[in-house]
Amino acid sequence: MTAVRSDTAPLDVAALRADFPILSRTVRDGKPLVYLDSGATSQRPRQVLDAERRFLETSNAAVHRGAHQLAEEATDAYENARAAIAEFVGAIPGELVFTKNATEGINLVAYALSNSATAGPEMARFTLSAGDEVVVTEMEHHANLVPWQQLCQRTGATLRWFGVTDEGRLDLSNLDELVTERTKVVAFTHQSNVLGTVNPVRTLVERANRVGALTVLDACQSVPHAPVNLPALGVDFAVFSGHKMLGPSGVGVLYGRRELLEAMPPFLTGGSMIELVRMEGSTFAPPPQRFEAGVPMTSQAVGLGAAVDYLTAVGMDRIAAHEHTLTEAALAGLGAIPGVRVIGPTDLADRGGAVSFVVDGVHPHDVGQVLDGLGVAVRVGHHCAWPLHRRLGVPASVRASFYLYNDLSDVDVLVSGVREAQRFFGVAS
Amino acid sequence: MTAVRSDTAPLDVAALRADFPILSRTVRDGKPLVYLDSGATSQRPRQVLDAERRFLETSNAAVHRGAHQLAEEATDAYENARAAIAEFVGAIPGELVFTKNATEGINLVAYALSNSATAGPEMARFTLSAGDEVVVTEMEHHANLVPWQQLCQRTGATLRWFGVTDEGRLDLSNLDELVTERTKVVAFTHQSNVLGTVNPVRTLVERANRVGALTVLDACQSVPHAPVNLPALGVDFAVFSGHKMLGPSGVGVLYGRRELLEAMPPFLTGGSMIELVRMEGSTFAPPPQRFEAGVPMTSQAVGLGAAVDYLTAVGMDRIAAHEHTLTEAALAGLGAIPGVRVIGPTDLADRGGAVSFVVDGVHPHDVGQVLDGLGVAVRVGHHCAWPLHRRLGVPASVRASFYLYNDLSDVDVLVSGVREAQRFFGVAS
Amino acid sequence: MYQEIILDHYKNPHGRGLREPYDGESFQVNPTCGDEVTLRVRLAGETIEDVSYEGQGCSISQAATSVLTDLVVGRTVGEATRTMDAFVELMQGRGAVEPDEDVLEDGVAFAGVAKYPARVKCALLGWMAFKDAVNRAGISLPGNGASGSERQGVQS
Amino acid sequence: MYQEIILDHYKNPHGRGLREPYDGESFQVNPTCGDEVTLRVRLAGETIEDVSYEGQGCSISQAATSVLTDLVVGRTVGEATRTMDAFVELMQGRGAVEPDEDVLEDGVAFAGVAKYPARVKCALLGWMAFKDAVNRAGISLPGNGASGSERQGVQS
Ligand SMILES: Cc1ncc(COP(=O)(O)O)c(C=O)c1O
Ligand SMILES: Cc1ncc(COP(=O)(O)O)c(C=O)c1O
Prior knowledge:
Helix content of chain A: 25-40%
Organism (chains C, D): Amycolatopsis arida
CATH superfamily of the largest domain in chain A: Type I PLP-dependent aspartate aminotransferase-like (Major domain)
Function (chains A, B): Catalyzes the removal of elemental sulfur and selenium atoms from L-cysteine, L-cystine, L-selenocysteine, and L-selenocystine to produce L-alanine.
Largest sheet of chain A: 8 strands, mixed
Strand content of chain A: 15-25%
Oligomer: heterotetramer
CATH architecture of chain C: Alpha-Beta Complex
Largest sheet of chain C: 3 strands, antiparallel
Number of domains of chain A: 2
CATH topology of the largest domain in chain A: Aspartate Aminotransferase, domain 2
Strand order of the largest sheet of chain C: 1-2-3
Distance between the termini of chain A: 54 Å
Number of strands of chain C: 3
GO molecular function, one term (chains C, D): iron-sulfur cluster binding
Largest interface: A-B, 97 and 98 residues
Helix content of chain C: 25-40%
Number of domains of chain C: 1
Bound molecules: pyridoxal-5'-phosphate
CATH architecture of the largest domain in chain A: 3-Layer(aba) Sandwich
Order of helices and strands of chain C: HEEEHHHH
InterPro entries (chains C, D): NIF_FeS_clus_asmbl_NifU_N
Protein name (chains C, D): Nitrogen fixation protein NifU
Structural class of chain A: alpha/beta
CATH topology of chain C: Sufe protein. Chain: A
Strand content of chain C: 15-25%
């Protein structure tokens, strides 16, 4: 195990960057790459690439299915990764289900709930029907919105949602009217992928607990960027994606309270998740296996295990502090440009490192294009949060998002690039 | 592009093996690894590992979501992989959906069918209800059985199945009684992962077409081992897994006829699969995007693209011929041992390279253990085909499965290892 | 990619605004960025008498729609189809297609956009709306401009 | 791993067969290989008077169940629990646990099996059935032998 840094000494970004091969490439005719799109997907350090390759060159086999030495080694590597990732979020291994991405994790919960309707009388506690309600927020990523719309469509339940204030905070003024005895699920994001807003998990969980609703936390943008202890947050379920936290694509995690995972019907079915199979019907394995049908993303889980080792060695507190510094600089730098408007909180309390903005008179696509020409990779569009953009009265925005390998010079390039876009489109003042 | 060999010149196995780093390792105190478990998962050549790493070190980004150069390159790599894989099975790119494994692909179809009940009147053609029937076979992998049991449970439809003959062939004697006007889906395996049996796709498809039932082909064990043209087979849907064909884990493929994919409701929902999202409801993108929610298994798709390039360069005809030779030798070698009984066809017509057997007086686990001690990796158990084992009157079996990197010496080690197990347990004659 | 011609059309769009009467109207959205256009077509027999539109979008989508009006107004549906096909071919050519200025006029300025796949959809948004609006006016436009596999927007 | 003692028990299992009367019965299956055991327990107060069983399985599962009968018949439920805990600890110890021959008797022969994780389930199959059968006889067996997270079989 790597040594854990819990201090908040500044990161040695230059040393860290040396671990990420892609960061030394150039784009668009020799411009150094300034990667400010980690909110969409992060880059991977050698340590993660090497761990996956080492696994594939020495121990690759189908896990939980074989008795030969490779199968044993592969199963150990896969389960050790689960244990490492569980520890990273304060959970026990049996509470972690590997999925292909966070999106699958949310769908898993939504489908398990609708499946409970036909899965036998003991599943009644999970069943939704007309009159029941699911509550989400207006700032959700589509991944934590559309599956709930679909669950409501399947079951006849009604979707309701928290609004967003002009400052980009959750409007909790009607908390008690929204979350009521009719509420079966409250699903919300820990940290907005657009605004950076960190939501008050405790307040929402307390209210949901009071009315007996399940809570589902979208932790995609929090777990990669700050220390997160999921059991301590008190949520029933949470999801995050490997590719946003230095790990491989193709692997995500669903955390679920043990008691719930044990009681829930399965979602995807097939090999490795069964207990007894007859043509007439089947019974299912205990969790987490019950929710991992088929040959899993084995090497990807191993890679994600290496990613959490890497993050732990750097120190999540230090990463959070580092991103705080970058966010502060970006808010100041962009805020100082006339005609640039940051959407989302401009104070740094309860705010993570995604900075979205619009430039008066220049469409986000065009801002992005000018930045791209300068080597700066940002995201433009609605960032899979279309209703949020509609609420804030903008069709789209430009988003810069930071990670441990960015530094203040990246912020400088971003800020001067935005000025350049204004000049190019003749809107500089 | 690599040159395609369509001749049937014998494989240069030694040269091929040099591409697979794991095959040069030793197990159990220095025994050379004899890997006969490719039916569970295959190993990966350098070319695939390198392609994935190259992608990750140069072009990694979220696909279909960004406008910067990395995002463009990543999207191109991902879509080029889709095109290469589509060509490999004779399809067009728009007919291929990337899933996490074949199991997800089958579940996708099964859930899309049950979702159609609440997805609007134009989906009525996909809806199942009480009185409708789903037909499978007794030789299915759990992945192509349990999802249909669950679909029936969700919809009230009835599951029926073809039996298996003592020789391990599909019993089609009651084809017309089983597949009737009530049948909505006929799902069956192309090649049994236990018996090696290749099923008569044409016969089943013709009957299904006659009654208007959808056909779902489990091509997990055929696409990796022989030339397969899915549209030419006439099936409506087919699935296969990357990890069984030299590609990464965490990526599978669902093939669907364009017209069906375009008409079907979505399964997993979230980012990248939408057309328009409002809090009140959403509409969905055309296929294949409609079925690819969330950030996909990007580098894994790229790796699978490299795998089909590799397979094509070697030549699928030659691979099939090679496995034919190995299967023939294994059937002869094992068949010559008193007390060893092969389950599955012993004639080589319509038979692929999985050889399962039982040894009188020695439990499969114990046979496998002795083989493992000799460096031979085989699979023991029911191989996720429990009903088939029950039908054949054995609780479990030993399975050797071959691929392009195996040669006749591997068969020799297997056969002498089985004799060794008999000696050890005192049942040699 | 930002040719002077494109910026000119962006800043001074031709034919902008929604006008009555019209024979077909289409609303199209680019699902990745939310850009949208509402476009109306007025026909006189086979001839496109007017194209009017409104929407929000980037320089590329706005300019391309402006160029579109220049290219199709006063032409027959058949001529417009051929122009559309040429423009779509140019945009999907990854920079490898040599544009014909006789056919595409100001549209040749978009040759550079074809090298940026993420922006191709922007350039085609107005054309998708045009094709759909003509269809809705009761005339079926053949051509490769908006086959099922390239459908990119939403109609409402 | 195939100690002589294991092979002896495998070839000449102790206490095999299902006998009447009994107080609790359990059916357990190993889902990965289909091996199964039906096991009955007869109690006299706190004392285990008989363990009878039938099933199909590999040498390890068969021998382990045979050893089980030697270890628990004639003992109290409390003693049996301690033995079970020691055996489970040995099996889950990856070869790092030193077995106590006074407690485990012939069971020490399974120390080598602990190095083969895929076979640990085989060695524990009979013990899971035993624990469940005692439970079904109305006596709750504590201990770490079959907590939720290690549940490996099916009960019917
Ligand atoms: C015939 C067959 N079908 C389905 C599967 C399931 O494939 P996967 O586990 O990759 O989803 C397998 C392999 O495990 C198989 O052999
Ligand atoms: C807040 C949030 N939720 C959910 C997701 C979906 O993650 P994935 O696409 O990896 O499933 C993302 C990222 O795309 C996100 O930022």
